[in-house]
Design brief:
mainly alpha; 10 helices
Amino acid sequence: RREEALSIARELGDRSSEGIWIGGLGAVAQVQANYPEAQARIEEALSIARELGDRGSEGYVVGGLGSVAVGQANYPEAQALYEEALCIAREVGDRGVEAWWIGGLGDIATRRGDYTEAQARYEEALSIAREVGERRFEGYCFRDLGTIASDQGNYTTARAHLEEALSIARELGEQNSSLLEACAGLLARIDRY
């Protein structure tokens, strides 16, 4: 369907929609761990965003390239791309996207084992998510805070964060979400200690 939508956008000469669908195909390739295709598609979407002067889309797509770099365990490149995406989100005043890239920087810090930075990033992202009313993203921030607390052996704090994430997921009516699954798995692991 995405290929069909892309074809229609091209027929109509709708460069904005074309960029969105190309970026979407890149995201699909990323989820499938087809990083060369993901990178090529997302770079094409970035070129279109820049051609159109769409800074908001540009920032989002730059962050998408950061996510591809994370998938390839290229954390220095991912960090640079997330920081660039964060600057653009701040420039255009998109607080929700700003929180997302701050959380991404927290993920990179977690992978490096820098839990102090990760915690600070997740708490900042959580604060912004609360400010803009992004409840689902609040849940992810609590999940991430719970994960790093668990990784450090602080199971009481981990449990509190994970239970808050579960509460949010339930409030939003998510029965089979990745958030619920991740939190339930982490809580089961904590219960062994």
